[in-house]
Structure formats: structure tokens, C-alpha cells
Design a protein that fits this description.
By secondary structure, the chain is an alpha+beta fold. The protein is elongated, with a radius of gyration of 48 Å.
Length: about 425
């Protein structure tokens, strides 16, 4: 396979009037340097980018310097994915043009993209740091987090998230460029690209796949939040990073950047730093997005709020007490047994009802007691009459009647007593 043109080859070619092979590219006018009067490109690891205009609208033309950097199938699939998943505001939309430029006697592909007016992320951060604009740095951190989450929700992974591939406009909005090692579901069965991302933003042996942006997403987010607390980063910035470098991802995590983070004494920064250290563990692989990585850790069971049963009062979790202070034990509620014939017994004390004592009932003499009294009286009268005059009228009858009534009452009383 022939070697792709280099930086100087493209510089010489674009100064020729017939360098482009298609009408849409011929209509473009390359922007030239105001002093030297020639196009002034930006050079990357795998491509050269020129700025051009069409009817007053800025465009970007990307020319490859490596044969493994991209192909038409990948860029057409990415273009369709960005349109379908509503990512036009998050990326510089690319479009592949086969055989678009003639260099060194043959034609080569061109990627036409939207031009983003602004600066790369590191230059934008440098400006904010120099102005000590901590509020803008904090806002930029949240903008970054939203951008990464938006990309991951759209099933897209850039593959080389780093300061040079993020452009920030004057309003603080961000857009991504350079999609040579990006991933979408349509590429899942393809071989991974040879490019593995900037060394100051990637973990060792990073696999290519859907969640490969989670680690660099955390690196940039933590860097921006830390600078929002203290913009005085000094020698930690080398021009090839924001805050972290490749050696900072190795234990024992005692490099100057970790000391810088610890000296901030900020609980949020400390929490994110600890999460990043865990992500640097050998064999760690992201299995989810940045939002999942930043989710609050689950509380231990003894700190969780008890579940409230509808209709009952919520249970309060007692505050931790010192080791020397005894924990008061609330008195147990009284257990009251309520007899309910025909109903199943209950063992839940809060559902039982305490019985109310009934007022004392004044008893009245029963009917048998009245008859007993009458029979005794009748028997006494009859015996008295018999003693005075047995032959007196009614005497024997009274005695007999008294004996009968008395006997009946006695028998009834014995029966009741046995019952």
C-alpha cells in the first residue's frame, strides 16, 4: 500500500489551483495566514486540518497522514449515527469524500467537517486559570460531565478524549473532533483501531469498546473541579495535560498531583480522587458510564433509613453514640391479651385492644330466693298454727303446703350448686 502524504506534502499541494477533484471542494476557499499569505494548518498524530470557507461559513478539511486512521465505511456510519442520535451539537459532524485531493500523483480521501470557532480545551483552561476564574472552571466541569453523559447515553465512545480533541467556543460549549478510534454498535465486530488514545488520559491496557471514555471522562472532570478550588497548579501543567500525567496513574499515588489534591481539603475532590485511584487498579475495566461511576456509594445497612409501613410512624435511626455512653433501652409496651371467641389469636401488640373494666353490677335477689323465703315463712306459720290448734281450719293445709314448697326450693338450690 502506498505511503500517505505527510504534512509538507499537503502544504505544497493545497497551494495549487487544481488540487481538489470534486466541485464541492473546489468551491471552498482555504483561509491563509495573515502575514505569510499561505494556508496555515493544524497538525495531529494522524491528520492535517485546514480551515476553509464556503459562502462565508467556516469549514474544516481533514487530510490523513496514516493509512490506518480512517476509512469511508467508518466515517459514513459515524455521520449517520450522529444524525440519528441527535449529537449534532456535541460533535463536529464529519463527511467522507473519496479521492477528494490530488497529492504526489494520486488521489487521497478528505473528511469535510464543521468548523468550531474556539480553542482547544487546554488553551481554554489556561485562559481561565490565568484569570483565576474559579466560577467558570466549576461551570466548565459540569459542562464536561454533561457532554460525556450525553455521548454515552447515545451509545457512542470517542476513544481519545483529551484536551486537543475538545474545542470550546466563546460561550463555553464543547464539541469533539477526531473520530479515528471511535466506537459505535455498528463497529462492535470490527477489529479495534491501532490508536489507543492520549497516554495522559488513558489507563494501561485499555480495551476498545463502549465504556472506554469513562476513565478519561473522570480524569478531566476531577482536573477541572480541582482547578476550580485552586487554579495555582504550577508545574503540574506541561502543555500535554490539564493536571494528570501517565505516571500519576501508578501506585503508590505519591506524585505531586496527588499532594495537590490532598492539600485542597475538599470532600468532593477527595471522593473523586479515591474513585480514580480505584480505577487505576490493575485489571480494572469500565463496565458503565461516567454517571454510574460518580453515583454516591451505598450506605452501610446501619446508616440506612428504615422502611416506613403505610399507616405507621417512621422509625428513626439513632445517631451514633460514644463507646462509653450506654444506649438507653426503651421500655417494652405492655402485652394485653384480648379473648375473642371464634377468632384466631393475635400476637402483634400494636394491633391489640386494651379492655376497659366494667362498673360493678348491683345484684337483685333471684326468684328462687324469694320462694325459699316464702316457704320458710309458710312453714313457720303452719307449724305455729298446728301447735296452737291442729284442728283449726287451714292448719294442716298450711303445714303441708309449707313443707312442699320448702322441699322444692331445697332441691332447686342443690341442683344449681352442683352446676
Amino acid at each position: 500500500m502506498p505511503r500517505y502524504p505527510g504534512f509538507d506534502d499537503y502544504m505544497k499541494a493545497v497551494q495549487q489551483p487544481d488540487v481538489f477533484t470534486t466541485d464541492e471542494l473546489r468551491l471552498l476557499e482555504l483561509v491563509v495566514h495573515p502575514v505569510f499569505g499561505i494556508p496555515s494548518p493544524a497538525s495531529g498524530t494522524s491528520a492535517v486540518v485546514f480551515k476553509a470557507t464556503e459562502a462565508g461559513e467556516a469549514k474544516a478539511l481533514r487530510f490523513f497522514t496514516r493509512d490506518d486512521a480512517g476509512n469511508g465505511h467508518r466515517y459514513n456510519a459515524l455521520h449517520d449515527h450522529f444524525v440519528a442520535r441527535d449529537l449534532l451539537g456535541a460533535v463536529a459532524l464529519p463527511r467522507w469524500i473519496d479521492d477528494g485531493i490530488r497529492v504526489n500523483g494520486r488521489t487521497w480521501p478528505v473528511v469535510r467537517m464543521q468548523w468550531v470557532e474556539g480553542h482547544t480545551l487546554n488553551r481554554h483552561v489556561d485562559d481561565l486559570v490565568s484569570r483565576q476564574d474559579t466560577a467558570a472552571l466549576a461551570e466548565l466541569a459540569e459542562t464536561w460531565r454533561d457532554l460525556v453523559n450525553r455521548l454515552q447515553r447515545a451509545d457512542f465512545a470517542h476513544g481519545d478524549l483529551q484536551h486537543g480533541n475538545v474545542l470550546v467556543d466563546g460561550g463555553g460549549a464543547m464539541r469533539l473532533v477526531d473520530f479515528d478510534c471511535s466506537w459505535i454498535a455498528a463497529f462492535a465486530s470490527s477489529a479495534p483501531p491501532s490508536e489507543t488514545g492520549h497516554r495522559n488520559y488513558q489507563p494501561a491496557n485499555r480495551p476498545w469498546g463502549r465504556w472506554m471514555d469513562t476513565f478519561p471522562g473522570l480524569v478531566v472532570y476531577l482536573s477541572l473541579l480541582a482547578l476550580a478550588k485552586n487554579p495555582e497548579r504550577g508545574a503540574l501543567s506541561t502543555g500535554e495535560n490539564l493536571l494528570f500525567a501517565q505516571q500519576d496513574f501508578q501506585p503508590p499515588f505519591a506524585t505531586p498531583v496527588w499532594g495537590f489534591l490532598a492539600n485542597l481539603r475538599d470532600s468532593r475532590v477527595d471522593d473523586l480522587a479515591e474513585r480514580l485511584r480505584r480505577c487505576c487498579s490493575p485489571g480494572w475495566v469500565a463496565t458503565g458510564g461516567l454517571d454510574a461511576l460518580l453515583a454516591p456509594a451505598a450506605k452501610p445497612w446501619w446508616e440506612r433509613t428504615a422502611t416506613v409501613v403505610p399507616g405507621s410512624a417512621p422509625t428513626k435511626v439513632p445517631a451514633p453514640r460514644g463507646p462509653d455512653v450506654p444506649t438507653p433501652v426503651p421500655p417494652a409496651p405492655p402485652r394485653v391479651t384480648v379473648r375473642n371467641e371464634g377468632a384466631p389469636p393475635t400476637a402483634t401488640w400494636w394491633k391489640e385492644t386494651t379492655p376497659v373494666p366494667s362498673p360493678p353490677v348491683r345484684r337483685r335477689p333471684s326468684v328462687p330466693a324469694v320462694f325459699a323465703l316464702a316457704s320458710v315463712l309458710g312453714l313457720v306459720v303452719g307449724l305455729f298454727s298446728l301447735a296452737v290448734d291442729f284442728d283449726a281450719p287451714g292448719g294442716p293445709v298450711a303445714v303441708a303446703l309449707g313443707i312442699v314448697v320448702f322441699t322444692v326450693v331445697v332441691l332447686v338450690g342443690l341442683k344449681k350448686g352442683r352446676g
